């Protein structure tokens, strides 16, 4: 908000004018808070993101109204009341169309499902309502304030002091900018084929560069937390697991000086774990502005440094609320970001294929910590009672089982109570008499006749092993190979796909990607449809507003030009294309047309009201609307700068959206100021005008 106010003051150079426009910010924000209260929404990352997006846009309509009222006072010598009324009436249709196109792109977001709905529905509602509030302020409060407070600058001869000199210097600079744009526009209109070809070429180049940008479901956030999962051989006793975890805790304390606390647990580990051979560590770090390494870098370091213990598998990953949410939403059970799916019926063949796939993924640099999702069963002793022998001795199966359970596992015989605490009294053999497998054979069983026989005369003991569970997807058996990423998702997927032939996939089996890759494909497919609907709605809104199909079509040419800035922003900032970036592209479909609306609307007004020719009206409209276009575009862009910098823990979640909007808006504004006027004259004069010589066109 501070950056927006500074930009407004830099252009208007008047405290009163700045205060008039700035009234739209608190009123829109307070009105949006009321909406949050009555709808039951909370203040969270998405609603705050919506408010941050709206800050730069809510002043756009007010800027256009005030600037036009000021121009009526300065150029047409009207009084404040008349200038406020006629100035707001002149731009009413333009700002209404602009706000409605802004809102139109958010309407399809309300009907998203799945991950996209969870992430962006609240953001869309907040932005839409704040824009409606800004429209209300621009057409009611701003004209009233202009009629009471708006004043013209003093004449040149009466400007004294530092402020007077600064005003004269800035006014001269802004007038020079207006004249430079007028000359550039006239030159562009004389070379329209060059302008149109250049704009088209830049758009094509941006499309060619788009596949080189990595993609992912959602940006990874640094929330100052790292999780380490430790796995020992299946069947390891909890005492052994505890000893390993204590050793791990010592190593982490040495390797991570940025830690604030380390919490460890043995006998669990992993998401919803509960096996005695597993453990987990949670490392909390100091705030990210107090350390040089991100939590992802620390996790990658721990993977390498802690992998030297024999018989111990260590997996480290960045964690925290947003990271865990990404994993949960990706359908991987919160355990991994990349999941290779092996589909086939034969369990043994699937096991062999999984081993080959894991070996291939282990040697792929873009991924780490590959592991087979199907856990082998815990080694068990299967006790088979010889029923005929037991029957001859008058024993039931239950009698033999209860005796073995009492001797080996123990049976609670009674409870001892002292000072409000209750302690179970467990009856079982001494540890040295029950720790070996042969101890089961040596258990003595009493018969109904009072005889005592050893259990080995009644039972047979076998060891067995098998899968804990068999998973299915779409009624087909499936086995997962889960892994962590050490590169963007798209690069990791490409690296694995290139090595699929090395896995020697047998007949009857198929290989595909699940988890984040699967959810990312679903989300992008939905957002692609939303983008198409948003563009159609924007065109429909403008067509109904102007009662014309041609003028909205001319304005729509500003949308593809935004792709130039989108690709440039992502490449320059090394940002992956994610759901947030996709939402930014959808937003641009409604934002970038507002500049073209101001140009085309005022051009039509000059031709209809003043009877100007096409070229004369285009040039005058461009020069007149240059300042409000620059003010609104810069305000929107600067309002998103703090979000784009990713300041604070978890702020990386919204940074791609802001970067996409800033890049697309700035390049679209610069190109639109030349491209749209050239396209307008082409539609008005026809293609024959492109072939006429320069003198004839003049």
Structural features, described:
With 698 residues, the protein is α+β, with helices and mostly antiparallel strands. The chain folds into three domains: 2-217 and 551-697, Multidrug efflux transporter AcrB transmembrane fold; 222-319, 2-Layer Sandwich (Alpha-Beta Plaits), CATH 3.30.70.1430; 380-464, Multidrug efflux transporter AcrB TolC docking domain, DN and DC subdomains, CATH 3.30.2090.10. Helix content is 59%, strand content 13%. The chain is built from 26 helices and 15 strands. Strands 5, 6, 13, 14 and 15 form a five-stranded antiparallel β-sheet that branches. The longest helix has 36 residues, at 114-149. The protein is elongated, with a radius of gyration of 35 Å. The chain starts with a helix and ends with a helix. Mean pLDDT is 81; it is low at 269-273, 330-334 and 693-698.
Strand proportion, as a percent range, falls in 5-15%
CA radius of gyration is: 35 Å
What structural class do you assign from the helix and strand content?
A: alpha+beta
Distance between the ends: 45 Å
């Amino acid at each position: 908000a501070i950056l927006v106010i500074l930009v407004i003051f830099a252009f208007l150079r008047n405290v009163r004018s700045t205060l008039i426009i700035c009234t739209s910010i608190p009123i829109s924000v307070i009105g949006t808070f009321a909406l949050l209260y009555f709808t039951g929404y909370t203040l969270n990352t998405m609603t705050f993101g919506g408010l941050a997006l709206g800050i730069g846009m809510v002043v756009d309509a007010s800027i256009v109204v005030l600037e036009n009222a000021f121009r009526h006072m300065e150029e047409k010598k009207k009084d404040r009341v008349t200038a406020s009324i006629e100035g707001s009436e002149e731009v009413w249709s333009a700002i209404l169309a602009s706000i409605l196109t802004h809102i139109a792109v958010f309407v399809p977001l309300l009907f998203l499902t799945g991950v996209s709905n969870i992430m962006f529905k609240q953001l869309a509602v907040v932005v839409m309502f704040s824009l409606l509030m800004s429209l209300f302020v621009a057409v009611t409060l701003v004209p009233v304030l202009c009629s009471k407070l708006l004043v013209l600058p003093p004449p040149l001869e009466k400007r004294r002091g530092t402020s007077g000199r600064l005003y004269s210097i800035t006014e001269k600079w802004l007038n020079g900018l207006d004249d430079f744009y007028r000359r550039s526009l006239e030159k562009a209109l004389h070379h329209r084929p060059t302008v149109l070809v250049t704009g088209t070429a830049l758009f094509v180049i941006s499309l060619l560069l788009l596949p080189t940008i990595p993609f992912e479901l959602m940006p990874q956030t640094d929330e100052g937390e790292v999780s380490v999962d430790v796995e020992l051989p299946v069947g390891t006793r909890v005492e052994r697991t505890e000893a390993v975890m204590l050793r791990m805790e010592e190593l982490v304390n040495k390797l991570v000086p940025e830690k604030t606390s380390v919490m460890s647990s043995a006998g669990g580990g992993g998401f919803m774990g509960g096996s005695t051979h597993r453990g987990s560590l949670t490392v909390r770090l100091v705030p990210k502005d107090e350390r040089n390494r991100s939590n992802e870098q620390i996790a990658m370091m721990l993977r390498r440094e802690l992998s030297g213990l024999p018989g111990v598998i260590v997996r480290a990953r960045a964690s925290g609320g947003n990271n865990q949410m990404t994993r949960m939403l990706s359908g991987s059970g919160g355990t991994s970001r990349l999941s290779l799916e092996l589909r086939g019926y034969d369990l043994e063949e699937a096991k062999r294929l999984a081993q080959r796939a894991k070996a291939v993924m282990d040697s792929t640099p873009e991924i780490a910590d590959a592991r087979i999702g199907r856990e082998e069963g815990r080694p068990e002793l299967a006790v088979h009672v010889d029923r005929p022998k037991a029957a001859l001795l008058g024993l039931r199966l239950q009698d033999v089982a209860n005796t073995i359970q009492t001797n080996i596992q123990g049976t609670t015989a009674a409870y001892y109570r002292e000072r409000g605490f209750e302690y179970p009294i467990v009856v079982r053999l001494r540890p040295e008499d029950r720790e070996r497998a042969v101890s089961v054979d040596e258990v003595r069983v009493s018969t109904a006749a009072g005889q005592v026989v050893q259990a080995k005369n009644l039972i047979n003991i076998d060891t067995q092993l098998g899968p804990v569970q068999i998973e299915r997807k779409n009624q087909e058996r499936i086995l997962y190979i889960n892994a962590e990423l050490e590169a963007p998702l798209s690069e990791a997927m490409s690296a694995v796909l290139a090595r699929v032939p090395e896995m020697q996939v047998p007949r009857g089996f198929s290989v595909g990607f699940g988890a984040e890759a699967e959810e990312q494909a679903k989300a992008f497919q939905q957002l692609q449809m939303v983008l198409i609907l948003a563009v159609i709605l924007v065109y429909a809104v403008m067509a109904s507003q102007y009662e014309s199909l041609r003028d909205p079509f001319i304005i729509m040419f500003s949308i593809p030009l935004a792709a130039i800035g989108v690709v440039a922003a992502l490449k320059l900032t090394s940002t992956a294309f994610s759901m947030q970036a996709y939402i930014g592209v959808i937003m641009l479909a409604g934002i970038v047309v507002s500049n073209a609306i101001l140009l085309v609307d005022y051009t039509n007004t000059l031709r209809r009201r003043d009877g100007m020719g096409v070229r004369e009206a285009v040039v005058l409209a461009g020069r007149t609307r240059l300042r409000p276009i620059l003010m609104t575009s810069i305000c929107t862009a600067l309002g998103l700068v703090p979000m784009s910098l990713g300041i604070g823990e978890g702020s990386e979640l919204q940074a791609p959206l802001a970067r996409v909007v800033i890049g697309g808006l700035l390049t679209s504004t610069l190109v639109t100021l030349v491209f749209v006027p050239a396209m307008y004259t082409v539609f008005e004069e026809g293609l024959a005008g492109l072939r006429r010589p320069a003198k004839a066109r003049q």
